[in-house]
Every structure is written in structure tokens, then in C-alpha cells.
Amino acid sequence: MPSTPSDTREDSPPDAPGRTAPGVRIGGLSVVYRTPAGELPAVRGIDLELPPGTITGVVGESGSGKSTLALSLLNAVQPPGRISAGSVQIDGLGDVVTLRGEELRRARGRHVGYVFQAAQNSLNPLKPVGRQLLDLGRSHGVADLRALVREARDLLGRMGLDGARVLDSHQHELSGGMRQRVGIMFALVLNAHLVVLDEPTTALDMITQATILRIIREVHEERGLTTLVITHDLGVVAEVADRLAVMYGGRVVEQGPTRQVLGDPLHPYTRGLIRAIPRLVGDIGEATALPGRPPTLATIPAAGCVFRERCPLRMDLCATQEPPTVAHGGRLVACHAVEGGIREERAGAGNHGGQDGAGGPDGRDGAEDPDGRAVAAGAREEQA
Amino acid sequence: MITGQGITKTFRQRGGVLGAREVRALRGVDFAVGRGGAVSFIGESGCGKTTLGRIIAGLEGHDSGEITVDGVAMSSLRPRARRPYFRRIQLIHQDPYSALNPTRTVYQALLAPLALRARQTGRPASWVDGRAGELLDLVGLDPDYVLPRYPHQLSGGMRQRVVIARALTVDPEMLVADEAVSMIDVSLRLGILALLRDLRERLGVSVLFITHDVATARYIGDDGELYVIYRGQVVERGPVETIISAPVHPYTQALLSAIPVLHGLERPGAQPVAPTGTLEEDKPDAGCLFARRCPFATARCAEEVPVLGRTGDIPQEHACFHPEARSVVAVPAGRA
Amino acid sequence: MTAPIVVAGGSRAALRRNFRRGVWRVLRRKPSRMLGVVILIGFAFMGAVGPLLYPERLPRDDDALYAPPSWEHPFGTDFEGTDVLALVVTGSRYVLMTALVTALITVVLGTAIGLFAGFRRGRWDSVLMRITDMKLTIPALPLLLVLSTVWKFESAVEMGLVLGLLGWGGVARAVRAQSLSLRERGFVEAARGLGLPTTHIIGRELLPSMAPFIAMNMLIAVTGAVYAQVGLFFLGVLPFEANNWGVMLNLSVFGGGALTSTAALPYMMAPLLAILLLTLGIVLVVDAMDEIFNPRLREE
């Protein structure tokens, strides 16, 4: 079984060329789902670049299209969904959208490692982890399975687990945090240098989450990866990502360096989202729920800004024209209000319902008591 | 007033590598929740907090200890006689998707308990419909919109509100909210938390909040009490704000240190504590349960068992031989 | 057990109306489902009204024994010169009646026992499941052979009763498994926590969630019952007092030599076709059950 370390060769990663972190350029990507009501866009016209060697975090609520985006990176959108436009250029691999069949299968795992949303439950319950590893190796034509096992053991050891023991274990013998690490091992063991983690810490508690996030960060640096983390939790992104993209209703509404976006959010949705997170320090009353609710596939507005119904800065223009993505310093923002220089006005006017400077370091102003109102207003509009 | 004294519970599991094994989910937990009060239990998954919630809501039995509801000891009553008491304690499930029957409309979900209530209290049947509307209003939903709908037609946040409205049909004294917002979209969570806080103020309902996210516990009531549970034992207990700003038990410090820092907005705390190793149930139970993972453990910790209580001038209760306040939580970046 | 409550705006009537509309929508979604419904309605009509269209004693035509199909006799005639179509139609009542009684008993008994055992668990569960196991070990065919020596099964209800009492075991086991998993669901726990009576929990919370499953079992039990009784009559195990599809098969094969000569072939094919058509109708309708009883699939 996988726990015999008798091999003399040194080159541990199975037939690994000296690859480095690839860059990824997503251009004009649209994904539609076929429904009884026609083809509806889950992801619309996304431009996103993952610079080589960085960790990019994609944050969004349910229905934001973030998981669909992650699947597109492997051209793995399942019917009734399909990529309807755009390209995903990965260095050393080309445009993934044009790959088919066997080519595509080989690219998954070797070039792009994927840790699934429910990695805790994505192992085969009937087979020990080691056997599943061998299956993976064989299906990718790995010549030296011993080296593969050794690599897996090293990876698990690196993540603080007893590799040999884990490979001999069944899924039910591992805790949630251990399974998550096994999932990461599977994504990396074929020496992929682009890794996609979909909700890597959902259903884990705080201490385990902190451990996993530290591991993601460390492994990312040690192995020279380009990493994409998909999550609904701003805290996760804040801890781990260099760059942050905020998705809403199938669009990227704001992206840029994490600290900039969190420290001085520009898009009203980003601001609202940050403001909706209860914090450990400061006036708890400052936290305010976002009114309304996130759109579903069927309720994403076909024209205009996707966020307008919940937006405190809504203008007439927003109903008809889709806001273009405009650069603001190191950031890209898609908002008419931001583009129109509303920011300058905002500094003086305090009548935007306390949304101003939602979480800016200097923005702890205008905290008119939102208690009660958060209940009544927040919920009522939820069903609008 | 709902209290518990020395609640213990042991699960016997079959199977596993070593055959049958015992998991001590609760090792003598005391608690008290007054009218309109807020008590939060925090801890890792597997620490026993969910089991405690189910026991308090009467959905599961316990091995020893006593639960009292308004001064009446539950062990003194026959199972059937306990029911009306436990009905005053309603559990709000983590998962609003499975908490509502997918084949029944919101109206049907509220109708059954309200009809029962009407019969018990001798109210006319016509009271039911008005009351259903009232309750939905109270939880911030539009009755006309929600009543005829099936659960799948509502968002997660709306569903959780319906679940809360359903719990309110029996005029409960306490809501036990077990990770009540963890499955709800981030932008809607705060609305549910605000609702629970609001219910405390308006109806005098007390809330027992079970979570692994301390910040949400704070939102339910900064006047509330926080219980930190580790492996079935309360290791620190006190006012929410006190424990967040000056935790003394290393486990509490580890929990608070693990909360993500919003870099750009916040800076990490000055003295973060990281536990060594992971939670493992099958360890021997000599000494302090946290000793093996504790970076500050001494020889004494491996031998003696610390008991929850107060020492020195530390305001909160704790179960640690070496209590020392550390500032572990993130601070706003703007402040010094 | 729900109290008679005056519902504002006739909400309950509205629910029922919505349900009917939903069923109609689901059926219209696929033409095959409509076809299935039409077939089943046709058979119900045949069983209920068909026999009334023919005289008590079907006319014989001694000049046309084993006549080939013609306009007058679409499926030819039998050994006595009686119209085969008339035999199929008049024989349908016994077959369908038996099937209905069997299906009802199977489902009602199986569901009740399964639900009760699964919801109560503990001692009730053990006792009921042991009884179910014992029942499952009784071989039906030999028992029927024995019973037929003392019992003539002249009425369809008697026949259905026996087949039903022999058939509920599987349903009980399956329903029990379902209720065991459903009782852990949040909404069942909530109902218990609210102090709702057991009758409510079983009848209003568990049962509707299992409705598609139960309805499917009911329909499948119908086909099972048809096969079982037709098989028994075909084998000649049961004395044939009544006109019946199984009897027809028996006479065509063993009396008319339908397997070796072509003369009695239509005589054999007619009841076979009827059975096939009935099965087809049921299979087509079963396909819609999931959508009918699941509000999400129904409303979409």
C-alpha cells in the first residue's frame, strides 16, 4: 500500500517540467444557463487577470456567479450551462475555452488544480485516500506512482498531517479540517501551478479555518502558485488574498489590491457588504444590513446596473445603462455614481442614509442609530 | 428564567477503529438565562454546544444534571408533563431549508401551531389568521406576500424569518438559535441578528445563541453573557465585551485570534494565541482538557483539573491556572 | 385532527385549486403523460361501464369458432364463437377491481405500518418489522395454491384482499426507511418542539413528503396485482367461475393451441394487449408523480 517509502530516485514530482506560476487572463467571459425561461446569464462579460504568483480572492453571495466563474477556469461548466463568449488564457496552456475532450482532461489536475466546494465530502467514502490517489495518478498516466505517493505524503506532512496514516484512512476517519487538507493535496499532487479553491473554509470553525488559510498562504509561496480563492466570506479573502474581486449578479463590480478595496471601498455594494459584517471592536450599532436581497439567476436585471435595486446611490442612468468598468488608481470599478465623481460630493453630504465611507478608516462617521430600522427596512425590502 | 446545573451527556458510538467508544459531549455545564437575556455559547465544532442547545430545547435527553424552567425542575416531572415547559423553549435550526416542510405553504406552517394554541387558550378560531399576519409583521415580512408561498419561493433570509415566526406562535420564553445565520447570505445575516435582538427588547424573549462566530454573538446583545465551551466544559464565562476585550483563558484567546482580520481596515491584535495541535476526542482526560494544545501549559495543568470560578481581580469566571488577559482581537487600523 | 378552522379568503380552497392547476400543468408538460392519463381513464371507463354495454350472456356464434379479426369481431372470436373484444371488456371489471383493491390494501397497510414503525422507533418498530419480515418470508404462490383449494375467489374483492394482504411488506419496509430519515429533518423536529400531536406530524408533515413515493407504489402495485391474478388464472390454479383476462389466456393457449396454430392467436393477443396497454398507461403516469407532489417542480 501507499506507505512504503522504498524508492531511490530523487525527482519527486512525477515528470514535472520546471514550471512556474502561470498568469491567467479572463476576457469578456459570459456563461449562460438554459432554463424554461430561455438562456439566462450567470456570468456576464467578466474581465479579470490573475497575475502570476498572486492569490486572488473572488467574493460574492449566492447567485453572484462566483462558482460558475471558478468552473470556467477549467472549462468545466456543466450543462444546462455553457460558456457563451469570452476566453480564459492560461500561460502554457492557451485558451481553455477552446480545449476539448482528452486535452481538457489532462489540463485539469496537471495545470489547474481544483479544490471543490464541499471538499469535506468529495472523497470516495468506500476507498482509502491512498487508493484514490493511485486512481488519479493512473488516469493521468503518471509513470512513477511511488514518487506520486511520496509527493502526496510530503504535501500532507507539510500541512501538518501524518501523511502515511492519512493515505491509509477512509473519509469518515478524517475530520473536516483534515479532509480539506487532503483536498488541497489532491489539487497540488500532479504539480499544478494554478490552483482554484472554491469555498475552502465553509463549514469549518474558526481555529481550523485559520489553520487552513495559513496553509494555503504558505503552500502558495513555497510552491510558486497562482491561486484563486472563491468565497462568500470577506474575512477569508482579507486574510489570504493579495487581490480581491467582488462579484454581484454575475459581474465583477470592483477589483483591486485587497487592502485598498477593504480600506477604501468604492462600489456601493462593496461598501454595504463590509458594513454588514459585525465586528469584534468598535460600536456594534455601526453594522448595518444591506437592504433587499441578492438576485437569483431569474431575477438578475437584463439591462442596466445589476445592483441598482439595493443601491443607495441609484440614479436614473442605472436602470438603462450598464456601468462601464473604469480604472480608479489601482482599481477597477463598475458604477455610474463612482464614475460621476459622486465620491467628492459624498465627503460633504451626510444624507445618503449612513452609507458614506462605509468602512473607511476615517469613515466611522454619521452612525445614526440603525437599530430597529435594520429590521423593518432591511427585511421588508428583501421581498421586493 | 431557565437554568441548568451540571448537565452531562455522553454519546456511545459504535464502529470506528477501536470499536465502541465514548464521546463526552458535555461534562457538567451550568447556565442561567433570565427573561429577555442573551447568552451565547461559542466553541469549535464538536465542543458540545449544539448538543447543549438540543437538550435545553427538550429534543434530546441528558445523562445527569438538572434543567429548571421558571423554577420547576424538569427531572421532577414525567415526560408528558415536561412538554408544556419545553414548549416555551424553541429551537431555531441552522438550516432554514430543512426547517420548513417543502410541501407546505407558510400559511400551513403557521396554521397548525396557532390552531393548537387557539384551542389551548380558548381563543376563537378566527384569531389564528390575524395572529399569523401579526407574527409575520413582527419578523419583518409582508404577510400577503409570504403566506401563500412555499419555502422554495423564499430566500434563505426570509425562510429563517418564517422559522422564527413559527417559533413565536407558541409565545416562547426563550429562543435557542443554533448557528442561525451561518447558512444565510452575508448581506442578509445582520437583518436576522437584528431581528433576534429586537425580539428581546420588544417581547422580552430571551435568546440562547450558539455560534462559532463571536462577532455575531456580540450583535445579539452586547449586554449579554458569553460562555466559551471547550470539549463539553465551560472554560470562561462573563459579559461579552469583557471577554472580547480581555480574555483570560488561552482557549478563548485562541478562538478570538483565529477570527480573520480585515487587513486594510484592521490590524491584528498585539498578542495572538495559536493553539498547538488539533481537537482530538480520544485523549485521556487527566488535568486541564486544553493543556495539550495550550502554549502556556505548565506541569500543574497536566495533573490538576481547573474549576470554573473567579480569581484575583479578574471580572469574568474562568477555568485556568494561569489566567492572563491578552489583547488578541483585531483593532481598527485608524486607531493607535 | 386539525380543528375546523374558518380560513380567511378560503385559503384552503385556494390551495386545492392551485394544486389542481399544478397537476394539470405537470401533465401537460409532456404529451406522454397525457397519453398515460387518457389510457388510465379509458380503462377505468371500461371497467365501470363496459360490462353494461353487453348482455349478461354474451352471444355465441357456432358458425364462427376462432373467426379471424373482422369489422364485426375486431379481435376475432373464441372457441364458442363469442366476440373476443366483448370478452376483454366484460372481463376487465374483475381484473381492474382486484388490482384496485390490492393496490389500496398494499399501500394503506404498508404506509401505515411503515410510518408508525419509522416514527415511533423503539419497541413498536422492532415488533412491526419482525411481523413484516415474517410476512415477507411467506411464499405467496404456494399459499395461493393452498387457499384456492378451499376458496373460489368468485368476487374480485376477495381476490384483491388476499393479494393485498400478501403484498404490503415491501412498501412497509421502504416507507419505514423514508420516515426514519425524514424524522431527523428540521421541520419534523420543529413540529415536535411546537408540541404538535403525533397525528399531525405523521399525517401532515411526513405523509406529504412521501406522497410521490406512495403514489408510485400504488400505481406499481396495480400492475403487480394484474400480473399476479392473471398469472394465477392462466396457470389454472384458480377455478374460473368468472370471465377474466387470465382465463382467456389459459383457454387460448391450452384450449386453442395459440402457441402452435394461428387460429387462436388473436384470442390470446387481445388480453395480452390490454395488459400491456394498462402497464404502459401506468408507467407514463408514474413519470409525473415526482413533479405533482413536489411544489417546486409543480410550480415551475
From TrEMBL, chain A:
<dbReference type="GO" id="GO:0005524">
    <property type="term" value="F:ATP binding"/>
</dbReference>
<keyword id="KW-1003">Cell membrane</keyword>
<dbReference type="GO" id="GO:0015833">
    <property type="term" value="P:peptide transport"/>
</dbReference>
<dbReference type="Pfam" id="PF08352">
    <property type="entry name" value="oligo_HPY"/>
</dbReference>
<dbReference type="InterPro" id="IPR050388">
    <property type="entry name" value="ABC_Ni/Peptide_Import"/>
</dbReference>
<feature type="compositionally biased region" description="Basic and acidic residues">
    <location>
        <begin position="362"/>
        <end position="372"/>
    </location>
</feature>
<dbReference type="GO" id="GO:0005886">
    <property type="term" value="C:plasma membrane"/>
</dbReference>
<keyword id="KW-0547">Nucleotide-binding</keyword>
<feature type="region of interest" description="Disordered">
    <location>
        <begin position="1"/>
        <end position="23"/>
    </location>
</feature>
<keyword id="KW-0067">ATP-binding</keyword>
<dbReference type="GO" id="GO:0016887">
    <property type="term" value="F:ATP hydrolysis activity"/>
</dbReference>
<feature type="compositionally biased region" description="Gly residues">
    <location>
        <begin position="350"/>
        <end position="361"/>
    </location>
</feature>
<keyword id="KW-0472">Membrane</keyword>
<dbReference type="InterPro" id="IPR027417">
    <property type="entry name" value="P-loop_NTPase"/>
</dbReference>
<keyword id="KW-0813">Transport</keyword>
From TrEMBL, chain B:
<dbReference type="InterPro" id="IPR017871">
    <property type="entry name" value="ABC_transporter-like_CS"/>
</dbReference>
<feature type="domain" description="ABC transporter">
    <location>
        <begin position="2"/>
        <end position="256"/>
    </location>
</feature>
<dbReference type="InterPro" id="IPR013563">
    <property type="entry name" value="Oligopep_ABC_C"/>
</dbReference>
<dbReference type="GO" id="GO:0016887">
    <property type="term" value="F:ATP hydrolysis activity"/>
</dbReference>
<keyword id="KW-0067">ATP-binding</keyword>
<dbReference type="Pfam" id="PF08352">
    <property type="entry name" value="oligo_HPY"/>
</dbReference>
<dbReference type="GO" id="GO:0005524">
    <property type="term" value="F:ATP binding"/>
</dbReference>
<protein>
    <submittedName>
        <fullName>ABC transporter ATP-binding protein</fullName>
    </submittedName>
</protein>
<keyword id="KW-0547">Nucleotide-binding</keyword>
<dbReference type="InterPro" id="IPR003593">
    <property type="entry name" value="AAA+_ATPase"/>
</dbReference>
<keyword id="KW-0813">Transport</keyword>
<dbReference type="Pfam" id="PF00005">
    <property type="entry name" value="ABC_tran"/>
</dbReference>
<dbReference type="GO" id="GO:0015833">
    <property type="term" value="P:peptide transport"/>
</dbReference>
<dbReference type="InterPro" id="IPR027417">
    <property type="entry name" value="P-loop_NTPase"/>
</dbReference>
<dbReference type="InterPro" id="IPR003439">
    <property type="entry name" value="ABC_transporter-like_ATP-bd"/>
</dbReference>
TrEMBL record, chain C:
<dbReference type="InterPro" id="IPR025966">
    <property type="entry name" value="OppC_N"/>
</dbReference>
<protein>
    <submittedName>
        <fullName>Peptide ABC transporter permease</fullName>
    </submittedName>
</protein>
<keyword id="KW-0472">Membrane</keyword>
<dbReference type="Pfam" id="PF12911">
    <property type="entry name" value="OppC_N"/>
</dbReference>
<feature type="domain" description="ABC transmembrane type-1">
    <location>
        <begin position="92"/>
        <end position="286"/>
    </location>
</feature>
<dbReference type="InterPro" id="IPR035906">
    <property type="entry name" value="MetI-like_sf"/>
</dbReference>
<keyword id="KW-1133">Transmembrane helix</keyword>
<keyword id="KW-1003">Cell membrane</keyword>
<feature type="transmembrane region" description="Helical">
    <location>
        <begin position="94"/>
        <end position="116"/>
    </location>
</feature>
<feature type="transmembrane region" description="Helical">
    <location>
        <begin position="214"/>
        <end position="238"/>
    </location>
</feature>
<feature type="transmembrane region" description="Helical">
    <location>
        <begin position="258"/>
        <end position="286"/>
    </location>
</feature>
<dbReference type="GO" id="GO:0005886">
    <property type="term" value="C:plasma membrane"/>
</dbReference>
<keyword id="KW-0812">Transmembrane</keyword>
<dbReference type="Pfam" id="PF00528">
    <property type="entry name" value="BPD_transp_1"/>
</dbReference>
<keyword id="KW-0813">Transport</keyword>
